């Protein structure tokens, strides 16, 4: 059976302070933090003490995140004062007994219990490391379009590009669309040199969306032009004979098409 005795130690708090703290509208975590700070200052006949968030979380049996959040509220409301950063790197805290300086606004509501749902957790986006092939493709293409954008005076459009998103677009291009990495590089090189397309394809998503059209146009432009065929004079002689056989004037025959 517990049998605490005042002779074994006590924390002296003025009744006036107790009367005011009851009216302060603190939430549960905030109230327990005030008591913990009293215990570790007034309980040792001290006005202030260096107290870390980890230590406070342990003594009030709460999480570090909750303590950090609610302690900031108490400091903002001027109930607790943070004097300085102590030798151990934690705040040196003191209770502000001048209750007229306290901010009387309502306390922040503590998070309620977690409600379980049947919703499936969102899948985290794949993280591509720097040695990943798709990430390397993203860096290569971004380098090309950055040069284009800089030349066109629109470098700001690609400066903050998300290379993780770029890498994911290239993964889809290869794994879902069936494009080989060689084909992808050829189109990247071609499109960033093309007079029209280079300023219209300034992201990996646009490249993937237009990839098939771009590949077709690239292949068409790369085809060698067919040499012009010169007319065969023998064909013209045959045409002349046919012209005469039809009873037409030879002088009116046109030797050119």
Protein model, in words:
The protein is mostly helical and 257 residues long. Among the domains are: 14-101, Winged helix-like DNA-binding domain superfamily/Winged helix DNA-binding domain (Arc Repressor Mutant, subunit A), CATH 1.10.10.10; 133-222, no CATH class. It has helices spanning 15-21, 28-41, 53-59, 64-76, 133-152, 156-159, 163-175, 181-191, 204-209, 211-222, 233-245, and strands at residues 48-50, 80-85, 91-95. Strands 1-3-2 form a three-stranded antiparallel beta sheet. Strand 2 (80-85) and strand 3 form a beta hairpin. Helix 3 (53-59) crosses helix 4 (64-76), helix 5 crosses helix 7 and helix 8 crosses helix 10 (211-222). The longest helix is centred in the middle third of the chain and has 20 residues, at 133-152. The model has no long low-confidence stretch (mean pLDDT 85).
Features:
single chain; about 260 residues; mainly alpha; Arc Repressor Mutant, subunit A; three-stranded antiparallel beta sheet; 11 helices; rod-shaped
Order of helices and strands: HHEHHEEHHHHHHH
**Quick one: overall form?**
rod-shaped
With strands numbered from the N-terminus, the spatial order across the biggest sheet is 1-3-2
Number of DSSP helices? 11
Largest sheet: 3 strands, antiparallel
How many strand units? 3
Ranges with pLDDT <50 over ≥5 residues? none
Tell me the radius of gyration: 40 Å
Beta percentage is 5-15%
